[in-house]
């Protein structure tokens, strides 16, 4: 039976670095953000739903979805955010679980990179959760630098997610990403070794 590991973190916690490393090691990773992008592409299932809900104000000149416009509207309004989540969650969940089940037929370990794993209640869909963790001050600083955001904008984005502290209390495995990248990837390599040994 294939093992399904949910990989999560917070915005700017370094999860994509871990995901890239897992792929380099030959592990399949279902990337929830990439799946959402596919579904939001012009003509995709989510594109149709969002267009019906928000109208053409969220489109760019070429008719594709303008994620920045949608993001601005949604981050500023918690009611709108809740409505959007409701609309998108079911479609995204269906697609993610379809991909997971297909992979489970062919490989022993499947990783699912889901930023909002706890918020969207995916913990029951995976066998264990690995959390990429940094403390809040570090997370805020990285987010401001990475996305060129003001403190307030960065704070708003962090507040929209469950805090890493809360996630930490629920995750089975915590990968500490507060130091050098090499140290983080060393922890992941160790976890992969233990997993192989455990199966042997």
From TrEMBL:
SUPFAM superfamilies: P-loop containing nucleoside triphosphate hydrolases
Subcellular location: Cytoplasm
GO biological process: one example: coenzyme A biosynthetic process
Reactions listed under catalytic activity: 3'-dephospho-CoA + ATP = ADP + CoA + H(+)
Keyword Chaperone among record annotations: no
Organism domain of life: Bacteria
GO molecular function: ATP binding; dephospho-CoA kinase activity
GO cellular component: cytoplasm
CDD domains noted in UniProt: DPCK
Protein role: Catalyzes the phosphorylation of the 3'-hydroxyl group of dephosphocoenzyme A to form coenzyme A.
Designated name of the protein: Dephospho-CoA kinase
Record organism: Streptococcus suivaginalis
């Amino acid at each position: 039976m294939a093992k399904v590991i949910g990989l999560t973190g917070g915005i700017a916690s370094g999860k994509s670095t871990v995901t890239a490393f897992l792929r380099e090691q030959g592990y399949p990773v279902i990337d929830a953000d990439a799946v959402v992008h596919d579904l939001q592409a012009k003509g995709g299932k989510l594109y149709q739903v969002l267009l019906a809900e928000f109208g053409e104000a969220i489109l760019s000149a070429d008719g594709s979805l303008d994620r920045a416009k949608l993001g601005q509207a949604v981050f500023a309004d918690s009611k709108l955010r809740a409505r959007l989540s409701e609309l998108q969650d079911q479609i995204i969940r269906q697609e993610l679980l379809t991909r997971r089940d297909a992979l489970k037929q062919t490989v022993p370990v499947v990783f699912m990179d889901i930023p909002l794993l706890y918020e969207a209640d995916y913990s029951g869909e995976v066998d264990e959760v690995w959390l990429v963790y940094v403390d809040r001050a570090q997370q805020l600083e990285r987010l401001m630098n990475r996305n060129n955001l003001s403190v307030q904008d960065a704070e708003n984005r962090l507040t929209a997610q469950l805090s890493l502290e809360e996630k930490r209390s629920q995750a089975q495995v915590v990968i500490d990403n507060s130091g050098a990248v090499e140290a983080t990837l060393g922890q992941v390599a160790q976890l992969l070794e233990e997993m192989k040994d455990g199966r042997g």
